């Protein structure tokens, strides 16, 4: 069903109104709308309606969600953590389709109706992780949009054949080329970046690069990324995830780099990590850099924290950056909603006539209070179809 009338709701915490969805799109917004024959009516009971959350960076193939508790072993280096994960994933009782499906349903329950997921591609995994995530998505695609990044987690230049597999992934369901720490993982920043930009340019794909490398090294690599973005005319199509160097680099160089990022149209995604510096998200936004927050690693071999709730992630940003005034809290909420949609270029996002008929109902006083208290998601609607209520998946297709 793609037709729905939501009555007695408060769009973006404004005055009470109705929203009529026809054919999966918002057809009308107003007080006491006529009730078309045959269109289901839901009484929102005065709840606030917001456009859905956007999960802009997660790893569906790594997830352990739904499995028994996994105690985290934290190896001493990034390389050791990668190798530890590869070993553990060989013996998991569930495959990628089951685990990825669990997390996608969880994200929908908490109000996210679009996900960008990185999936590991290597000569060891080949395209198995990609195929597994796509298999899971077939069961839930009515409820959530999905964008996949071909991600060389275990290395690109040091694993000959991975580049070819990443390019093949673009013909089998991925639409974004990933990268990771060109110096630390591959010890070849130029070769790594030339390879992924070359693939993206040939295939018309977007780019999303994990950049954990700190300080001067990370800023140098951001400059290399910006240089290639401009040279290939890829402004607006490149994202850097994490970018810790913007949080711990020399202040004057960070300030210059922010201008470079804005001019090159490069987006920044942060998971708001707890133990290290992260990019100044509100300053980035104020200076024209597209940016958003996301969950990244959660409930997997890297990290036991997180539950797929983007409202919680927005609150974490607010807490870590000392947001107190209502206007500050709303800017934090934007980082998991509107700014996430802008960053990923989602068409038809919003609560206006003509937009996709997708929204989240949350009972609360106002948007600031919702962010602080993080109430249950009373209803989640995707293109006019109710897909979750009271934080519970309700579609009959779920086994």
Automatic annotation (TrEMBL):
Q: Which residues cross the membrane?
A: none
Q: What is this protein called?
A: Amidohydrolase family protein
* Family annotation (PANTHER family): BLL3847 PROTEIN (PTHR32027:SF9), CYTOSINE DEAMINASE (PTHR32027)
Against InterPro entries, the record matches this protein to: Amidohydro_3, Metal-dep_hydrolase_composite, Metal_Hydrolase, Metallo-hydrolase_Enzymes
**Which superkingdom, per the lineage?**
Bacteria
Q: What is the lineage of its organism?
A: Bacteria, Pseudomonadati, Pseudomonadota, Alphaproteobacteria, Hyphomicrobiales
Domain Amidohydrolase: residue ranges: 118-388
